[in-house]
Amino acid sequence: MSKLKQQTTDRIIIELTESGELSITGSPLPALSLALSKELLSLETNKLGRTPILAEELPLRCVLLIQNRVLDIITGTLAWLGCAEGFALSLILCVFSSPNPFLNIAIWISLSELFNGLFKWVLQHPRPFWLYSPVHTVSWAIEKQYSFPSGHSQGYMFFASACIFEYGYNVWTTLLLAIAVLGGLSRIYLGVHFLHDVLVGWTIGAIFGYASKTYNLMTWFLEMHMDAKMILSFAWMLIIPLALLVIRHEFPEHPKAFIEAWTQNMRKNCKNEVEWRSREMHQYMQEYGFVLGGMWSLIINEKFDLQIGWIMFNENFESFENIWPRVVLGTSFVITSIIAFEVLKNVDALRKTPFTRLIILFVLKVSVGFWTLLLMPWLAEKYGWTNSYLPLHVAETYLPLD
Question: How many independent structural domains does the chain possess?
């Protein structure tokens, strides 16, 4: 009997209560180190990895009162449109339809998404359905990465504010703003974000949207000296991966006990097998590769005096009559790239060789930058897939005149 009692008291039981508190009962096994005991105490004190915000779970409780199939479909659709792939398709349509100003906007949203990712990697805030139960979730809109700030809310608000600052208020920009608000609120409905995640995401998105109007990075890069272009492109190529590596080293993952408790609650809310996903380098390859490929394209264009893109880069949308081939062809390439990326990143054989996998995914995303800023402009100007002639002030700046 004494032996049985010893086994029972030596067991640690970790449970999540209905209020989201972590309950720890029992005592550590004698073999456990003092460090592990400190981790468990920290787990209990910090409430699964961060300081809780007063009444943060109330919006999640309200969702339980209004959830229905129609709202599931609407919010799930907004979740897909606001993800990296959804934004890539929306933006590439805009870029090939109206390169001015959407090339600059595409560069800025890439920076915005990278900033969001670095922020998440440092703070590592858990999502609502990892902590609280019951929380309403939708199976096709489950997020397995960290929460704060909301990337969907930030992306939606960036795009809406960038268009508002560029075109002013009209029917379309007002609709984009409404979608940005609904897109942010949908993240709470889906149980993947707290209200404060969404509010901060909206704020950061609006700041980046204003910056996109104030500073035209496309023009700024074109006006740089060739040596400065080269230095900046190599700096970008090295600094972003190094920043991610440094963050992973200086801000390590939460203790295993945290992750096990999160996974347990994730499965409880989702009612199926859901695995927590660690931070991976390829997550922000799309934004990183697009910008790097774009810079290299412009450098090659200038270095070899190719004179490609000066018509297309300065073109505003007029109609699809002449440009529909470049829109269809350009978008088709990006769709193919996205599908290939999603397939290749999940190939087991490549997962066993992480560096090879990373290089393949890197080349795939850099090719999108080359396609958008070099190959597609060349095809468009060669076959007349444009709506405009070359403006005189642009010709005097970029083209040799007799």
Answer: 1
For residue 13, tell me if it sits in a domain: no
Structural domain boundaries enclosing 65: 58-271+279-398
pTM of the model: 0.79
The rounded radius of gyration (Å) of the Cα atoms in the chain is: 25
226-241 average pLDDT score: 92
CB 161, CB 140: distance < 8 Å: no
Residue 39, in any domain of the structure: no
Q: What pLDDT digit, counting tens, does each position of 64-90 carry?
A: 888 888 988 888 888 888 777 777 888
User: What is the rounded average pLDDT of the residues 137-158?
Assistant: 84
Beta strand pairing status for 13-16 and 22-25?
antiparallel
Average pLDDT, the chain: 79
Residue 29 lies in a domain: no
Spatial neighbors of 240 by CB under 8 A, at least 6 apart, are: 114, 284, 288
Asked if residue 357 has pLDDT above 50, the reply is: yes
Q: Is 11 within a domain?
A: no
